[in-house]
């Protein structure tokens, strides 16, 4: 699917305006409310949510982002009615089957994070296919968080490290943030600079808890199906206006130019 001499669009990182984020995480909330407010079934909200996801991926490419991580199914979502769970699984399948070749042509590299063991065999196969088919791509990294939960991810990393220590592969005193991060699903992926959540809720809901230590947050009142390129651009502009200090001081304070 991919040749070494690529005719695919190169990563537009150099087009990224100064101050724009490299990695954006998105909590796609509000599909159900979008549907309910129109008297439509929840599935219609999720279908429209998938359309909004397609638009967000196209916009992320155009905006020159390196990574877009989308929260598509949380471990807690299993507690929804069986039919809704089946609908969401169906939409994931549709997304991969229908969009994989377009994503590949757009030089998108897909990576899936989350627990695979609980998923149906056909879905697991599709996820591996999507990752393998796009593994050589060099454009936008689309990280799909599916059956993902941050606490479970962190517990699994602790378990893996405990096993390494028990087997003598790792010394307990060598465990630090870097080594720990290498055992997370997101190993090798830079932390998100910005996390966007739609639908007015202001919480993380078990999404990228370790990785969000220094992320900026933008909460939008609109429901996810209404999230469009304009809303995405506005969130990036809001991010650009924020000052990130990572626990330090501003360069101006450091240089003694500011009072506090
Ligand atoms: C939140 O809306 C959204 C989800 C639980 C799933 C996100 C799914 C999509 C955007 C479409 C499908 C795409 C894939 C790849 C599976 P909600 O149902 O929690 O909305 P509510 O809070 O208003 O009920």
Automatic annotation (TrEMBL):
Report the domain of life of the source organism.
Bacteria
Keyword Nucleus listed: no
Show the SUPFAM superfamilies listed in the entry: Undecaprenyl diphosphate synthase
Q: Where is the active site?
A: 29, 77 (proton acceptor)
* Keyword flag Disulfide bond: no
* Positions annotated to bind Mg(2+): 29, 216
Q: What cofactor(s) does the depicted protein rely on? A: Mg(2+)
The EC category is transferase
Q: What's the protein name?
A: Isoprenyl transferase
Q: Which organism is it from?
A: Methylocella tundrae
Q: What is the lineage of its organism?
A: Bacteria, Pseudomonadati, Pseudomonadota, Alphaproteobacteria, Hyphomicrobiales
């Amino acid at each position: 699917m991919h040749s070494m001499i690529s005719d695919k669009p190169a990563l537009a990182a150099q087009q990224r305006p100064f101050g724009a984020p490299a990695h954006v995480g998105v909590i796609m909330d509000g599909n159900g409310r979008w549907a309910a407010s129109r008297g439509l079934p929840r599935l219609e909200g999720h279908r429209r949510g998938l359309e909004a996801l397609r638009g967000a991926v196209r916009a992320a490419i155009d905006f020159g982002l390196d990574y877009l991580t989308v929260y598509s199914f949380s471990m807690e979502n299993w507690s929804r009615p069986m039919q809704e769970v089946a609908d969401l699984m169906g939409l994931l399948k549709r997304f991969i089957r229908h969009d994989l070749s377009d994503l590949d042509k757009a030089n998108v590299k897909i990576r899936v994070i989350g627990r695979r063991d609980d998923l149906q065999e056909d879905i697991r196969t599709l996820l591996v296919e999507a990752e393998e088919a796009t593994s050589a791509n060099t454009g936008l990294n689309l990280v799909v968080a599916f059956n993902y939960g941050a606490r479970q991810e962190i517990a699994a990393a602790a378990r893996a490290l405990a096993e390494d220590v028990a087997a003598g592969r790792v010394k307990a005193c060598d465990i630090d943030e870097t080594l720990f991060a290498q055992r997370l699903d997101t190993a090798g992926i830079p932390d998100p600079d910005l996390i966007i959540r739609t639908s007015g809720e202001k919480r993380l809901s078990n999404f990228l808890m370790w990785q969000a230590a220094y992320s900026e947050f933008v909460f939008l009142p609109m429901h996810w199906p209404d999230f469009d390129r304009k809303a995405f651009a506005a969130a990036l502009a809001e991010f650009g206006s924020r000052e990130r200090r990572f626990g330090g001081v501003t360069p101006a304070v450091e240089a003694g130019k500011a009072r506090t």
